[in-house]
Design a protein that fits this description.
Layout: E1 14-17, H1 27-40, H2 47-53, H3 58-71, H4 80-96, H5 106-115, E2 120-123, H6 128-135, E3 145-147, H7 160-169, E4 176-180, H8 183-192, E5 195-198, E6 211-213, H9 222-233
Parallel strand pairs: 1-2, 1-4, 2-3, 4-5, 5-6
Length: 236
């Protein structure tokens, strides 16, 4: 569904934000939970496996963890849903305790977009209860829509989550900006037809399609974001 922006005058119709690693730096919390799971079952946790899981749907990530154990000859006695629940409980406990930080410039940009009247949505593979915990720290109307991983049939890298967010807002996805930090998430955004602005966190993101890569959001305001996204979308 890749195409040109349909309304350059009113671009963007909305900015759709990824959560983990883009808006807040929760990746270390996920790494800790995933590593604890692997090691509690006698497996070996590695940086390579950690990076492979970044941006994945939680069920996909849980299956990769189980496959990693099986590759070591370990037969885990848990199901995918059990792994997902264990990971979420661990990370959510840390989030509730405030054990996370906002990515540099992300919160400021988000609130700057809100002040400009630019609509925003939150699109993540994390589950709703975690997203709403952090969203509660922001002004009530910051996100008009939240699309969590537990409410989509196909997660990232499929385009469905971003398409669902655009549909919920009643806007054309090609008039939207997607904010991402991982190759998996950027692939989802590009496949949806949005203009993607990627700010890599722990793994590199190669530009391609309607996407552009920024080193940081620190010092980036709404105007700079829109200019970057126009470059990604090839629209004047």
């Amino acid at each position: 569904m890749v195409g040109a922006m349909t309304d350059t005058k009113n671009f963007p119709a909305a900015v759709l934000w990824d959560f983990d690693g883009t808006l807040v730096d929760t990746e270390p919390l996920w790494f800790a939970a995933e590593g604890a799971f692997i090691e509690s079952h006698g497996g070996t946790w590695s940086e390579e496996l950690a990076h492979e899981l970044i941006g994945s749907a939680l069920t996909d990530g849980a299956n990769k963890l189980l496959d990693a154990l099986r590759s070591e000859g370990i037969k885990p006695d848990v199901e995918t849903d059990d792994v997902v629940a264990e990971l979420i409980d661990s990370v959510l406990a840390s989030v509730v305790d405030g054990d996370y930080t906002w990515r540099p410039g992300a919160r400021e940009l988000l609130l700057g977009l809100r002040d400009r009247g630019i609509r925003c949505g939150l699109v993540s593979m994390s589950f709703r209860r975690m997203l709403e915990t952090v969203a509660a720290e922001l002004p009530e109307d910051t996100f008009e829509v939240i699309v969590p991983g537990d409410e989509v049939e196909r997660g990232k890298p499929h385009p469905d989550p971003y398409l669902d967010a655009a549909a919920a807002l009643g806007v054309d996805i090609t008039d939207c900006i997607v904010m991402e930090d991982s190759p998996t998430g950027a692939k989802s955004g590009v496949a949806s037809g949005a203009a993607v602005v990627a700010v890599p966190n722990l793994v590199p993101v190669a530009p391609g399609g309607r996407s552009v890569v920024l080193e940081t959001l620190d010092g980036i305001g709404p105007d700079e974001l829109i200019d970057a996204a126009r470059t990604a979308g090839g629209s004047a």
